[in-house]
Amino acid sequence: MSKTATAARPKRAKASSLDPLIERLNSFSADNYWDLGKFLVERVIPAALNEGIFGDQVLKRMADVPGFKFPYAMLKQCMKFFTYYPDVQKRKLPEIFYFELATKVDDSRKRDQYERLALKEKMTISEFQKKIREDELARREDNRTQFGFDLKERNVWSFDTPDPRFGRSGYKGRLPGQVIANALYYYTSPGSVVVDPMAGSGTTGDILEALPYFGDRKVRMYDLNPSDSRIERANILLTGIPEQSGSVDYLFLDPPSEFYPGGEDADFSPELARSETMMSMKSLMRESNRILKSGGRVSILVECTTGTYGTIDFPYEVNALARELGLKQIGKVYLPRRSDSSRKIVTGGEGLRPMASDCREMLTFEKP
Ligand SMILES: C[S@@+](CC[C@H](N)C(=O)[O-])C[C@H]1O[C@@H](n2cnc3c(N)ncnc32)[C@H](O)[C@@H]1O
Known about the structure:
Blueprint: H1 18-50, H2 57-63, H3 72-84, H4 95-104, H5 108-121, H6 125-147, H7 177-187, E1 193-196, H8 203-210, E2 218-223, E3 231-233, H9 236-239, E4 248-253, H10 270-291, E5 292-302, E6 305-307, E7 310-312, H11 314-324, E8 328-336, E9 359-366
Bound molecules: S-adenosylmethionine (SAM).
S-adenosylmethionine (SAM) binds near residues 234, 236 and 256.
């Protein structure tokens, strides 16, 4: 931990009669949070267990009760506070420090280090919060430099601009390379054979070439219209993916918008459009299942379409398809689009007001 937070600390004001009041105020909500946590752990959770309600379920249920005062996240924080610091009254720092630690720092050794630091440096709570926040930012920056790309640690991957090193600017349907880099980080391992059968502008190849972290993966790319010499020509819907059965560790599928319904005519048939899209998806998933090794993984980008006819929930459909093939879902990531690039709206016929999709999903499956 660096010591930046204490460098420019102003001198503490002289003791005043307000001090004890401020201290009391300081710990006021924290007191209540701890009591709430204790009540949850000692009374609510055992009662819920008796009724067959396990884990966080009871917190979620309570938060859903109309008029209930506390949101789920707060209940969870209170439980952590009490669980990590049942002895909080006997500790040396004001309670709010421990509330901060319990809710912001998961590693118990780090919590102890912060406690010692706060005591040694006589930190204020603002300094303490700033220190924890700065360390977290520094840790993320370290990750970024360690891996060479913007590593996402939660399942919403949103990028304002595509990393210019990966893929070709202006290529229709080019994906921000950060999405593929994160997928490779989570779903491949050293030595993995990676296949991108709709490689477009070669984003996957660029990542594997540019980032030393992925240096030991091997990649093969295909496309209907190859954009450079690294990509082999193939119409995978017609001929399948030109790879041996059981030979691939990871497949990245980024289907083109043409695979989705896009009708604007009054006689547009959602059922026909749905079955056409699903035929393409079936073909992709069957081929993936064929060429994957046991333990191999496939990520597919897929989204709902909504038109005057209602919604076709393609992520749901692809999931069902994967299950039929015996694949196990191991990941679901949301990929919000930048608003200027949303898919075109299906306006044909009468019915619901259409709404464009601005969020794709990346579903990942594993072959047993
Ligand atoms: C959404 S783009 C992929 C973009 C790519 N991930 C990138 O970042 O540049 C979909 C690609 O699929 C290709 N494609 C469409 N139909 C195909 C088919 N039947 N077989 C192989 N490639 C196909 C298109 O040429 C297009 O380049």
